[in-house]
Amino acid sequence: MVIRDFGRCSVSLYLQRKRAWIFYPVFLCAILILFSAVAAQTTAIIKITGEIKEVPPVAAFIGAPTSGTALLHVTFTDQSTHSPNSWKWEYRNETVVDWTQFSTAQNPSYPFPAGIYDIRLTATNTAGSDNDTRFDYIHVSAPVKKPVARFFANPNIGKTPLWVTFKDESLHDPTSYYWRFGDGATSSLKNPPVHEYRWPGVYKVQLTVSNSAGSDTAERFVVALSRWWWFDGDWR
Q1: Distance (Å, rounded) from C-alpha 176 to C-alpha 179?
Q2: Residue 172 pLDDT > 50, yes or no?
Q3: What is the 3-state secondary structure (H, E, C) of the chain?
Q4: How far apart are CA 110 and CA 205, in angstroms?
């Protein structure tokens, strides 16, 4: 009986070990399958959440050129981040106090007349909007016009020695001056010192003025008479 009982115990222990070897791999496989499913679901949630969430844009831009003469054509380049889908460009200056919209394109070009301009870009997407403002960003000067030479001579007739004052009255802002007084003397001053004519004669005086747009010349005549030809009301 003892030997038989021992044999049953041995058989029973053998069967239990055999079941354990079968059960453990099945259990481990079930754990791995469950973990993989949870991980896949978590990844899917993260991916879906990342696709749905959107952040507002951060507005930024550059423009070129930013200075010149009117009309100045400036091209603006949008540099906003976070994928804006609409843009509003505005300007203002010393004469236009309120913001004035000039484009809704992403990268517009606009001609500016003379003035100093602030520029503002508002960039928008479904999550919100942001703006970038540049103060005194565009500097436009008035176009340069060709000068028109004019001058005044006082007196333009008299007895020798004749002292004549010349004064520039030219238009459109000349930047250089050249006087020829008709007696061989010259000057590059805007308003030269009083000029003396010592000898009788008719002198052709010329003024040439210039700027970046061109040049122009004006002329007048100065008559210097001998004292024998000049009557000043005193016969003595």
Answers
A1: 10
A2: yes
A3: CHHHHHHHHHHHHHHHHHHHHHHHHHHHHHHHHHHHHHHHHHHHHHHHHHHHCCCCCECCEEEECCEEECCEEEEEEECCECCCCEEEEEEEECCCCCCEEEECCCCCEEEECCEEEEEEEEEEECCEEEEEEEEEEEEEECCCCCCECCEEEECCEEECCEEEEEEECCECCCCEEEEECCCCCEECCCCCCCEEECCCEEEEEEEEEEECCEEEEEEEEEEEECHHHCCCCCCC
A4: 47
Among 32-41, 114-123, 147-156, the minimum mean pLDDT is found in 32-41
pLDDT attached to residue 227: 76
Asked if 209 and 170 touch (Cβ cutoff 8 Å), the reply is yes
> CA–CA distance from 25 to each of 14, 18, 38 (Å)?
18, 12, 20
pLDDT at 216 over 70: yes
What Cα–Cα distance (Å) separates residue 76 from each residue in 44, 64, 109?
41, 7, 6
Instruction: Look at 8 and 84; give whichever has higher pLDDT.
Output: 84
Q: pTM for the complete prediction?
A: 0.55
